[in-house]
Amino acid sequence: MPQHNSDGMPAALICVSGWLCDPETLYRPLLDRLRLASAPVVQPWAVERFRGRLGQYRLTDELAAIEASAARLRAERIDLVAFSAGCTGALLFALHHPARVRSLALMEPAWLGNNSGMPGDDQFLQAMDCLARLPSGRILTAFQKATSTVPLRRSGTVLPYSSLTERCLEGRDSWRIWRRSDLWWGDLRKVTAPVYLPVGEYSTARAHVVATTLADALSCAEVETVRGCQHLDLLDAGADILAAGLIRTWQAARGIEDRSADIPTNAQRPAQQCPGPDEFGPGEDNFGKGPGQSWTGH
Q1: Farthest CA pair distance, the chain
Q2: Which of 134, 151, 200, 298 has the most Cβ atoms closer than 10 angstroms to its Cβ?
Q3: DSSP 294
Q4: Are the CB atoms for 105 and 80 separated by under 8 Å?
Q5: How confident is the model over 4-38, as pLDDT tens digits?
C-alpha cells in the first residue's frame, strides 16, 4: 500500500536531530513551510536517551531509536530526514531496512566511520579528536570551525548557551565511543529510495565531498548546495530551499511507489529505479534538476 498522502507528501515521517540542537526547535522552520497533513515524529539522536548513563550507549542505539519510532508509526514504509550526527542512525536504518524506506534526506552527515577513505576525513577526525579533549566552554566554537568556513551566526537551530554545557559533554563523550566503532557501510546501492543530500554553501570542503561521494555511491541521489548557509544554520537560514528539495524527493518517491503498485504481487519485482529527470508529468518538479544541483541515478 502506498505510504503517502494523495499529494505525494509523506504519511509517516521521522526527523532526527543532531548534536547541540533541540529537535523541535531545529525542525520547526522547515516543518512550518511544509505544512504536512500528517504529524511527523521529531526525535533527538540516541545519545540523549542515555543521559546520566552514557557508558551504556552504543552506536547501534542510533539504529534502535529509529526502529522504535518506525514501530510506533505502524507504517510499512517511512520517510526519513536527518541532520548532522542524526544522519548516522538514519543511514544505518536505510541499510538494514531498505524496503521500509520510501525516501531519505541526509543533511550534512557529521561522521561516516573512522575509515571512510573520503578526502578530508582524516583532518576532520583529527579536529574532532582535539575537540573531544576541550573543556565544554570551548567545544561549540571548535565544532563550528570544524564544520564551517565562515564565523558562526547565532541561529535558532542551536541550543541557548545556558543549555549547551551538558550537550557539549554528551557529544564529547559519545564521540569517543564512535571513535572505537568499526562501522563499515558496505554497499550503499542497497538503499534504492531517493536520497536528498543538501550541503551549506559555507560548510567545509569535506561536507561537499561527503555529499557528492555519497551521491555517487547511492542508487538514486540529488546533491544541492544551499546558498548562504553553513552547517549550524542550515535548517534555519536554508529552510525554504530545503522544503522545496524535500518535496522534489517525495515526488520522486511517489513515482517509484505508484509504479511498483502496478506490478502484480505474484510477479518478480525488478529493482527500483530512480525516475529520470524527464519522467514526471506536467506540474511536477524534476528530481535534482534545479540550479546548483546534480542528479545521480545508477
Answers
A1: 60
A2: 200
A3: E
A4: yes
A5: 455 568 889 999 998 878 899 899 999 999 999 98
What single string gives the DSSP state of each residue in 81-103?
EEETTHHHHHHHHHHH-GGGEEE
C-alpha–C-alpha distance, residues 169 and 198, integer Å = 28
Strands 220-226 and 293-297: antiparallel
Q: Are strands 195-200 and 220-226 parallel, antiparallel or unpaired?
A: parallel
Task: Give the list of residues 6+ apart from residue 37 with CB closer than 8 angstroms, or none.
Answer: 5, 9
Q: Determine the number of helices (DSSP H) and then strands (DSSP E) in the chain.
A: 9, 7
pTM attached to this predicted model: 0.83
Q: How far is CA 108 from CA 47, 120, 167, in A?
A: 18, 14, 19
106-126: per-residue pLDDT in tens? 999 988 888 877 778 888 899
Looking up cell 529493482 gives 271
Other C-beta atoms closer than 10 Å to the C-beta of 120 total: 15
CB atoms within 10 A of CB 38: 13
Q: Which amino acid is at 244?
A: A
pLDDT at residue 158 tops 90: no
Start-to-end CA span in the chain (Å): 26
Q: Using the 8-state DSSP alphabet, how is residue 77 labeled? A: S
